[in-house]
Amino acid sequence: xxxxxxxxxxxxxxxxxxxxxxxxxxxxxxxxxxxxxxxxxxxxxxxxxxxxxxxxxxxxxxxxxxxxxxxxxxxxxxxxxxxxxxxxxxxxxxxxxxxxxxxxxxxxxxxxxxxxxxxxxxxxxxxxxxxxxxxxxxxxxxxxxxxxxxxxxxxxxxxxxxxxxxxxxxxxxxxxxxxxxxxxxxxxxxxxxxxxxxxxxxxxxxxxxxxxxxxxxxxxxxxxxxxxxxxxxxxxxxxxxxxxxxxxxxxxxxxxxxxxxxxxxxxxxxxxxxxxxxxxxxxxxxxxxxxxxxxxxxxxxxxxxxxxxxxxxxxxxxxxxxxxxxxxxxxxxxxxxxxxxxxxxxxxxxxxxxxxxxxxxxxxxxxxxxxxxxxxxxxxxxxxxxxxxxxxxxxxxxxxxxxxxxxxxxxxxxxxxxxxxxxxxxxxxxxxxxxxxxxxxx
Length: 442
Hints:
Belongs to the cytochrome ubiquinol oxidase subunit 1 family. 71% of the residues lie in helices and 6% in strands. The chain is built from 14 helices and six strands. A hairpin with a 2-residue loop joins β1 (156-158) and β2. Residues 434-442 have low confidence and may be disordered.
């Protein structure tokens, strides 16, 4: 493995793990706050027990997210020194603000974990809300930095120098809003389906049914709302990408030839040598409509992009198809759940609906990983779109491959520790929180 591939692989591995930890850390505090609110409003001790159980999960993911995020910050400097040398002064503001949000989150989480019986009940609940809001702000600020890489702004590039730097304009670049909305909804959908799936499995096994039923309802509702809104966000993002990054859109859609009334490609295997897609279903005019709002407008293909600036096609296209396919599956399950709440309440007690949620447990996070693959691989060969190539930003330090193997072992170990802690926490639920009367179905 050469050093360039090793550096990219190490960054991809680190981001792939961190994005799961950070999504859960962003979203779980909101589940916790809703459960806490329900306890304060109703006095139902199941909600109090659920809040305490979820708060331990929040603490676990806060710690692992902090560790993996710290590693990423070091990797930016060690693996991509040229990038940080030039980009740091421009997009450093969202990172510094993210650090502030992180500290607020840490303080609020400490208040919440140790505030039981020490604070006024509603102030205690408010500290949990602050954990969620500051975590969400942290995620949006990091996404703003990534959006700047896709849509660089806030500077002039003159004779190889970055001048007239405007950090606020860099942070609020043209891509930040669409990426922030899309990523936030993805985090809520992914975490919601994962948490709902775990609790649905416990209900099917007849374990602590009242406890897990309340947990399932909160997580499933968050997941369903986010999943139904996500296609609207996706449409907003697609139109934005079509305007700013036509090469990325062409790679995502395996759109090799510029044409009017461009077809939307469903599935298929791109043949980059033959400039075609095999085994695909094509819907005439639909790509033009999704990209530009009408069925006739021309969509730029890869034939309009200089060969040296073309991204790879196979990986972004397959990742995009996977993301969209899983997203539509989650939308279908969400609509089914809403129908059950509205007209078919007996479905809420049926095993088949719970089994569908169990099957959907990993779907959201697979879609998140696929979406970030599209975002990052589709931008290649640029680390700063149109300004700096990835190959020009990598460290000259030899031996990066050994670092990649070491960090792979660290992240796998960290994941195993998290799985063990969560498994133990779930197993401890009846011992810590349940009473015999609570073992009866709701």
